[in-house]
What we know:
homodimer; alpha/beta; Rossmann fold; 6-stranded mixed beta sheet; 4 helices; globular
Amino acid sequence: MRLYYGYNEFRKDVVDLAKMVEANFKPQAIVxxxxxxxxxxxxxxxxxxxxxxxxxxxxxxxxxxxxxxLIIDNVPKLxxxxxxxxVVDEIVDSGRSFLGVMQVLKEHYPTAHFKSAVxxxxxxxxxxxxxxxxxxxxxxxxxxxxxxxxDHIA
Amino acid sequence: MRLYYGYNEFRKDVVDLAKMVEANFKPQAIVxxxxxxxxxxxxxxxxxxxxxxxxxxxxxxxxxxxxxxLIIDNVPKLxxxxxxxxVVDEIVDSGRSFLGVMQVLKEHYPTAHFKSAVxxxxxxxxxxxxxxxxxxxxxxxxxxxxxxxxDHIA
Lengths: 154, 154
């Protein structure tokens, strides 16, 4: 089973996720995991009207999502004023790359407070984000993955 | 006058811009200017099915787009295999930050070949991107700026 996740659902979910976060966390910076978190982090940065949007590379090189070495690179230079930082990705699959990213960021910035936010999470994941909007019960085709492919182009 | 630039136009424009680029350039990596280029770079990375998507921070701190110091930071670590690299932003306004980003990247990677791509450009800009899809004849409200604000939420 595959679920298509479209733009019109996303643009409302951004607001819901932002409200969930800001209820008890006021991030001074956003760190987007590349690539998956990019569109979400872009929208959140504008929703909160902050230019403090950064990125970090996390990739598993292998034949499927669970195999291969996890490479985390391009840890962003954050500012001393960044005490509360939100790390953003689109989904927690296994949780492996998110776990790695959070660990690396905490090592680099031991006095900062990092929280994590995603649109979707699988129940079986080994990592639980601080803010998760929806459960992923099936494979999700995100609009940024499929809307530029063949049949979806109107 | 303001132009609303919506998602349905964007998803087709991504394909048009990608085709314009790949006609004579085969990037092995994409560098997104933060924040503006994030959604476009995300879509291009998936369209070309590459995980080689990176980011760079460029911000003018001042009271409007033309004032203040230009700060370029978090120059990504690229790989020796990255010979042709596409730098992506949503629009060339004055061109100042794009000029600065291209200069910094070329200084860091003197043997790599950088080209630039944007959705929109103002005629009056001091920088001309290698690939520009459309002319910006007015102020543009991008969907990532306005679709999460008040009235746009259906």
